[in-house]
Amino acid sequence: MEERLTDQTQLEAERLRLHEAERRQRILSEISAILLDYVGGDEAEPLRRIVDKVVQGMGDWCAFSLIGPDGLLRQSAAYHPDPRQRDLAEKLNRIQHPRRWDAGPAQTNALVQKRPLVFEEITDEMLRAGVQGEDEYRLLKDIGLASAIVAPLVTGAEPLGTLILASAGAGGRKYTPNDVDFVVALADRASLAVRNARLVRELAEERDREQLAREGAERRAAELLATFEADPNGLVLFDQYDRVRYVGPRLAEMFEWMPVHEFVGRHYEELFGQDARGDGRIAEMEARTREIFSRRDERSFDEFQIARSGAWVARTSVPVRGPRGEYLGRLFIYTDITPRKVLEEQRSEFLTVAAHELRTPLTPLSMYLQNIEKRLARGMRIEPELANKARRQVTRLARLVEDLLDISRIESGRLEIHREPVELEQLIGEVVDDFRSAAHSHEIVVVRPPEQTVVLGDHQRLEQVMVNLLQNAIKYSPQGGQIVVTVGREGGDAVVSVADQGIGVPAEEQAKLFQRFFRARNAATRHFGGLGIGLFVSHEIVQRHGGRFLVASESGKGAVFSFTLPLSPAHAAPDRGRAPAQA
To answer: Which terminus of the chain is less hemmed in, N or C, by CB atoms within 10 Å?
Structure first.
């Protein structure tokens, strides 16, 4: 009888053991399935799924903690079917500070021991050793932990965190070494899930970094392309194999007769082997280009004229290098220096003309002074006319110097305009009277308006404008003839014009008349004197009065130079009762 009871007891124990083993295997299988379904980068999510399955199957506490980058162990997932237990654990987490994973007594630390630890019965001494304060201890007592098993989560030799299965209350489960295999299986699956989630996250972060890098590279490429496209210079970029990578739009404009964009992807010899300049010097250009490309570490610079267009170009090339100094290619920059060359030519011509113009009054002045010196040495009387002639040449020389100084004042912004009411008829009449006494071969006619024309301006500077215009009218009509000076009104502006019957100004050069040092071609070739600064200064004076300059002319048929000035507000209303007067 006793043997039969013993056998039955053993059979029941075996049945229960098998049932428990089956239940645990089912839990592990379900956990494996749900972990296979998860492919995210949140490492806590698979742990929450494991906790959910374990608690459903066993009804005890299940909690995971993971080690952060700072080495502190923090709870990542935990659950108990009893809401009161969960509430107590939540309070404990709020007041319990995370500790380093290797803190506390080594003999009760599964991560330090690198193996599962079984606590079949949890004593008060164990609870006190696991917390730092009395409040934490009381909460642990209220939770009522009775038995527990702790397993480390590892990846290779590196610790990841911990898994805890624990029972609460007097009638709770008692964990024994027999539970170690199950807990190790859970820990292995959890470790793999954490590693996979971290790998997914790292891959996603790497993908994001690559995406950001790609977007950054595309943005920089777009910015660089926009910079190249907007560059006022002509650009050609070659790669490390001396092939054309990029041709800027300005270069295509400089060599508009040549399809330069079609050379992208081709070797430099094909591009520079063309007679792009139109001067027939292909061999010379090819030799120079080969020399530039052979000296990879050096910059290059040269200037040349494009025969087909007449433009002057400065060509600079620089090697392009990567972050490690490796040669990536060469960039050529073509800069249009035609304005500079024209200015240099004008400056050279100006210096020649200026020397001549300054010498012109100096020669007779020197003769007059020598004559005066001889008369003084002989005790002879000095005739007043001789002194007057010398004085006129000094005045002419001073006027030339003053014109040059005006250019300096204009360019430095120091040309001052002192405004006061100026009656134009009176000013013009005084200037014309001075010229009439000297211009014997010209008839100067003044047409005045019926009403008084008053502007707010600088009397001396406006007189300078009129003197320049009348001097030009007389100088450029060497055969004499009539010069008509007209004063009139247009709306709120006074209009003054000087018309002559001289050589005129070619239509294609009229836009340049008010540039510094510019002299029309027909004036320069016929050896008319002048520095090319009178109209430049006059134009600046009129502009600073708020007016504008106009010119109407045909070559060989005379010219009409006009300028406008705002009328004085007090004299803006015209008197319509008077007819124009002529003098």
So the answer is: N
